[in-house]
Amino acid sequence: MTKRRVVILLGPPGAGKGTQASRLSAALSLPHVSTGDLFRENKAQGTALGKQAQEYMDAGKLVPDELVLDMLFDRIAHADCAGGCLLDGFPRTLPQAEALALRLSGVEVHALNLRVPDAALVERLTGRRTCGACGNIHHVRYSPPKQEGSCDKCGGALVVRSDDRLETVTRRLAVYREQTLPLEGWYRQRGVLSEVDGDRAADLVFSDLVRAATAVGAA
Asked: Residue 125 to residues 27, 28, 49, 101, 140: CA-CA distances in angstroms?
């Protein structure tokens, strides 16, 4: 893996990591690797790693970091990741970052951090309305449906997911501040962190992410 480049996308829930990751992946010619997708894919394919992870989840336990890393590096071993990858959703804690760094010894690593004020995050997350039929997402302010309560895509009823309720959003942000926010300082101390203002139009954020990633990659 000595010639690979790994870009890590950081930011709180609602910062737009998922939206930006797909675009950034294409712009940097790096496969988008999401740990959430890895769990679903391994479970659907019935892999040995997926079965091990499911055993922990069925028992109500957290999947150990080492098992998550095994899944991650099993994915990175694929041919499309020969030049590296864009990581989304991992690491989430300092122990995970430290374990990842050990496995990526000798690999060029850069972290891009999306900064968004809490008030904006709460508005983004609590304003989401999801179609119960097709999963399409609207937002009461940024992408309201043509007919209130109905999905533009299929006409299904729009609902507020439990993850998007205020009490859940508040709890998710508290967990982020406690567990994931320290990663900013950890990567900054290593001189591999770039900060991007995520509280702007998506195209402006994307342009700055590409600029930061390109500048860092050329350094």
From this structure: 26, 28, 32, 31, 10
